[in-house]
Write a structure and sequence with these properties.
By secondary structure, this protein is α/β, with parallel strands linked by helices. The protein contains ten helices and 17 strands.
Length: 349
């Protein structure tokens, strides 16, 4: 059933992980399109991004506390909302944390997805509710094929990716077994000024600003040669919405098609605050110096290396461009500028 808004019918969306980076951008997008939005946040999660989410002030925004392990509460929320669209963004999404907490990662990412799908089926919403699953480019691991597309074999190399692999295939299974409208968005790295601090992009931009302001001496990083396909989260949530507007469900790679190294990220972020970096040494002995002063600002630390490192991620978004009409509008350099500018402004207060 759709809620009535004046004389028109209004779509209802349910977003899990609504106060995270993607949930914040997606809830604004949907509210701007006239949706009624129900958002789910786990009771124990940080509220840092919630303060950035202006959507919570909107009369059409309804907030729920629920852990993705609580099936009975999930059922009750779906019964109340009767959503036309569900966007499952809830996840333990940090790769390093997944090595430290593999069981918790699987419980939320894999079984949490299953609980949502089963709740739709239990409530008889198979023909009403469209489902989006936030999948990940980490599924590809050290793929022999570059760039990676929807037909590239999966090779997950960490507990996070393995948990997301289960979620991907259970979505395909429910789509085929129960004729449900279920889409996987295979999302490559996407960042923003509200990215949590435990992700390398935000770690770098915050450290660069602190070093510029004299609040931090050095930036310690792991594999500087690791390459990623980095896009802007605000662009990627548009692709999520477009998938659920199609007549038939399908799976799509969402990426920029370009790759940059952590070293590139560091150099450009420092350049944004007027510091050029010169490099010396190799491997664990590699260091980055301020080209003007000779001061060492970047060092490599073994503790930030992953047990297994995926060396190169770059997605092929051709299918999304052709069938969804989606193209990323924000390039890597604009993204880094945006993040550094935000951290500079935040440092003033």
């Amino acid at each position: 059933m759709e809620a009535k808004s004046g004389d028109s019918l209004t779509k209802i969306a349910l977003i899990t992980g609504v106060t995270g980076q993607d949930g914040t951008y997606l809830s604004k997008l949907l509210l701007d399109k006239g949706y009624v939005v129900h958002g789910i946040q786990r009771a124990s999660s940080s509220t840092r991004t919630e303060s950035k989410n202006e959507s919570i002030k909107n009369i059409n925004y309804h907030f729920h506390f629920c852990d993705m392990t609580d099936y009975s509460k999930i059922i009750r929320i779906l019964q109340e909302a009767l959503p036309d669209e569900i966007y499952n963004l809830a996840a333990q999404s940090n790769v390093q944390t997944s090595f430290d907490r593999p069981e918790y990662t699987a419980e939320i990412n894999a079984l949490g997805t299953l609980r949502l799908l089963e709740a739709i089926r239990t409530l008889g919403l198979e023909k009403k509710t469209k489902f989006f699953q936030a999948s990940t480019g980490e599924l590809f691991g050290n793929s022999l094929e570059t760039p990676q597309n929807e037909n590239t074999p999966f090779n997950p190399l960490n507990p996070y990716a393995v948990s997301k692999l289960y979620a991907f295939w259970i979505c395909v299974n429910y789509r085929e077994a129960y004729d449900m409208f279920v889409c996987n968005g295979i999302l490559f790295n996407h960042e923003s000024p509200i990215r949590p601090d435990n992700f390398v992009t935000r770690k770098v931009t915050k450290a660069v600003v602190k070093i510029k302001e004299g609040l931090q001496d050095k930036l310690y990083l792991g594999n500087l040669n690791a390459k990623r396909d980095w896009g802007f989260a605000g662009d990627y949530v548009e692709a999520m919405w477009l998938m659920l507007q199609k007549d038939q469900p399908d799976d799509y790679v969402i990426a920029t098609g370009e790759t940059h190294s952590v070293k590139d990220l560091v150099e450009f972020a420092f350049r944004e605050v007027g510091i050029d970096i010169e490099w010396e040494g190799k491997g664990l002995d590699k260091k980055g110096r301020n080209a003007s002063t000779g001061e060492i600002l970047i060092e490599v630390d073994l503790q930030f290396y992953r047990p297994i490192e995926s060396s190169l991620f770059v997605g092929d978004p051709s299918k999304a461009k052709e069938k969804l009409g989606w193209v990323p509008r924000t390039n890597f350099y604009e993204l880094v500028k945006m993040m550094v500018k935000n951290d500079l402004e935040f440092a003033k207060y």
